[in-house]
Structures are given as C-alpha cells and as structure tokens.
Description:
The protein is of the alpha/beta class. The chain has a domain at 1-136. The protein has helices at 3-9, 13-26, 54-63, 65-70, 79-86, 110-121, 141-144, 215-220, 266-271, 277-282, 300-306, 360-369, 391-398, 444-463, 484-498; strands at residues 30-31, 42-43, 91-94, 126-131, 154-158, 171-175, 182-186, 189-192, 199-204, 227-232, 255-260, 285-290, 317-322, 325-331, 348-354, 379-383, 406-409, 433-438, 470-475, 503-506. The strands form 3 sheets. Strands 3-4-5-7-9-10-11-12-15-14-13-16-17-18-19-20 form a 16-stranded mixed sheet. Strands 1-2 form a two-stranded antiparallel sheet. Strands 6-8 form a two-stranded parallel ribbon. Helix 14 packs parallel to helix 15 (484-498). It is globular. 32% of the residues are buried.
Amino acid sequence: MTHSTASVMSLKEDILFELFTLIAATDVPHPLPWVNPGPLKYYLGWVRLTHVCRLWRAILVDEMPGVWAAAVCRLPSAHSIMLARARNRPLTLNLNISLNENLCLPSGHIHHERLYKFAIVNLAQADAFHALYGIPDRNWVPVLEDQHLPLLKYLELKQKQSHGHDSRLAMLHSFDTPNLVWARLEDIAITFTSTTIRHLSVLGHVMFCTPEWSILDVLSRLPLLEWLSLDQKPPERADYSQYKGPAISLDRLETCRLYGNANANLAEFYSHLSLSPQVLSQMDELYFVHDTAEADGWENDFIATFGPSLNTPLFDSLIASDDGNVFVGTFPAMEKPELAPRQGRDRHVALELHHNGEGAALRIGLAVLALVERAHIKHLAFGFPIPDVHTNLALEALREFSAITSFTAMRRDVLKLLTAQEDGHIAFPKLEILHAVMELPLDETMLQEWWDRLVQVLDERSSAGAPIRRLRLADDWRQVEWNEDLSVVDAVGMERAKLLVPDIVDERSVPKLYGVNT
C-alpha cells in the first residue's frame, strides 16, 4: 500500500463523511448517451466508492441516506435499491437524469414512462420535483390537482401546450404545497397554498391573457419573495385592469426580471408593483426586456415606464449599446466597463429592447438616455453605431452628461463624439480616463482607422485643455489572426499615442510582437 493510499484509508469517519458529501455533489451518477438498439448504460459516479472497502461501504450505505435520496432517479435500473437506501429521507425526483447531456432517447422510449411512474408513486416523499427538461410533454393537472405535498420545497414543471381547438388553460387552484420555497413553471397557471416562496420563475403564453388566473393575485400572496422572473408571451393583449387588490410591495425582492412581447402589457403590469426606494436600493438586479419590435413608436410606453428605474443613486456607471438588441443599464463602477453586467453578473438595472431596422437602435437608445439623471453618472460606456448624419443628434443627447470622468468607446465610430466640434464644444470636459475597444473582425484599414481616430481624440482634447490622463486599450476577445502587417500598423499607432497620453494600459488579446505595447 502506498503512502498516499494509506493516508486516505486512515481518515476518520467524520472526515470521510464530509469527503463523501462533497464527492456525491460533484460526481453524480447518470446514464450515458443511448445507442440504438440496446439498453441504457450508466456512469456510476460516487456509487463506486461503496466498493472500495467495508468501512466506506458501511458509511455510505448505513449512515448517509441523504445522498441516495438525492440520486434516486439517476440510475433507473436500480430504483428499488436506491429508494431502500434513502430510508424515508425526502427524495429528489428528477425526470431529467441526463445532467444536461443528450441521451438521444426518443420521446417514446420506455425509460421515460418508467421514470415518470416512479416519480408519481413517490411524489409524497419528495422535497424536490424537477420535471422541466428532457421529458415528453405531460399534462400535469390531473396528476397534481388532488395531491397534498407537505415535504415539497423545490418544483420545476413544464406543461404540455394545447394546440388546435383544445385551448383549455392548464391550471392548478390552491396547489397544496405549504412549504414550497422555489418554483419554476412553464405554461401552467398555479396558485399556491404556500406563502413562503422565495424564488419564482414563470414562462407562459395563453395563461397571461385569461381572466381565470392572474399572476398579480399570485404575487400578492408571496410577501417573502426574493427572486422573480416572468417571461410573458400571450397571444392576445394581457389585461391587468381586472386586478383589484392593493399595490404589491414585495419588500424582500432582490432580483426582478421581466420579459414580454407586444401583448404582455408590461407597463400596466408593473404599475401594480410598489417597489419602495429601500427595496430598489437592496436589489441586485432589475431587468426589463421587450422582446418584440413593432412599428415606430412601439417602445414609448415601455421606456416611459421602466426608464426611470435606471436612476439608482448607488449606481454611477451607465452602458448604452446595440449588439442586435438595445441594452441600456446602470451599475456600480467597474474596471472593464465594456463587460458591464448582463443577467446574473453583479448588481445592475437594465432595459433591453429588440429593434426592427437601421436607425431604430440609436433612436431607442437615446430615448432611454433622456430619462437618466445625468448629474450623478461618472462612467459611460457607449456602443451604438453612429452614422455621420446622426453625430450631432448623439452629441446633443450626451451633452448634459457633464460629470463623466471615464468613457468607454465600444465602437470605432463612437470615438468621433470625443473630438472637438465646429462650435468649439468638447464633450465631457471632466473626462480623464478613456477605454477604447478595438472591434473585430479586423483588417489593416480598420485598424488604421481606429488608431487614427484614437490619436485624433487624444490630440484635440489635449489642445483644448481637456487631456486624457489614462488610456486603456481593450477588445471584444474574439479570435483575430494577427499578422505582420497588422503588427506594424499597431506598433506605429501605439508610438503616436504614447506622445499624447502619459499612462497607457493595453489589455487587448493580441500578440505583442514588437514589444511596444505597455
């Protein structure tokens, strides 16, 4: 026996218990991709540890029922053994056992039906029921409507959508889950007996435009809610005027994501929420998405309703960009503003709007910026395409951002906003730090244009008495084939910039072939 093996085998039982708990969470058993024809084969993961020695087997089998309860659905061929070793512990019932891998199982494979029946029989013992991915469409209403599930805390449920003449709403009234804390639903309308739900995610279609069910009624009964995501895609206009209850405060809310198409009527929906300044100050994320572009002017109500949310006093940074969708957000200052927060990254408030053609992005973006309180914004990242014909329009919109000390030019054409204008005006007179993003794809002409515009900005601002003190170079991290011609253009551009700004930081992901980049 080697020294390392002896060391592992001599670990105390309490240490082994902690070790096995960690391994069970990271080395989960699961089926391997199915090869037709033939049975499913499995990767056993942590279960293999039961065959190392008697002590390890005794600990895992006799003293750790929780790990078996959590993996009870992972090995369908061993359901009865896994269930026995769980010893009445609350079960994790997961109808998607593939760990996000494609098992290549046809929807009619016998595996699906066996797993479904096993889950339904044992549902009363479950504290988690995951029925969202990797399963055939199911109608859950007749299965769940009479269930009393006091142990259930976590629920993921995807309902089969009705088609053709069968357009009945899938709905569960007073779903009897008194201890539910986490729910993610697709196309099933549920009202809960639980008032302790902290996390709620709902994606739906017809459910949002029917008088039989109201998401506002649901939210009014969830005072402890901390995380809310609603993706509303109704085929007809949603009508929230029928809600007669008081404004919904959601005093513990930390994350709110609202997505909607043109029928979602998000503005009227949001008018029934009353998020106090204290709630807004504690939130990590407030994110609004209009995911359908209509005729000109469709965005007005959306912007008027949600634009003021950008004015969070603690957030002094602003990003406004177009990467196919208009994105405008505020957030606390960060070192790399071009990587400003999107979903799930750091604290932010943001609006995202789909647009429908050339020129629409800048028009929509500037309409949002008009609602931002400019005086407390110190850091601005700008990434809209700006044709020459719209330069004055963009400059006028940005003129009142007088407190800007740091600016990120996310595109080449944005740099022209920083040069001296014909009337002598120069944007952002307090600007000291410039982040210049090198766009890709790239060729010699584009790189030369970028450097020419960048050097022009540095030169004209220095002459106007508003010099850039620090220049940071960045890129969008896509792969570029960096050749000798590009390197020569880059080296010359860098030397020109060094004559105009004392502090240059180059964080681009390009080879430093000539040793000229600092």
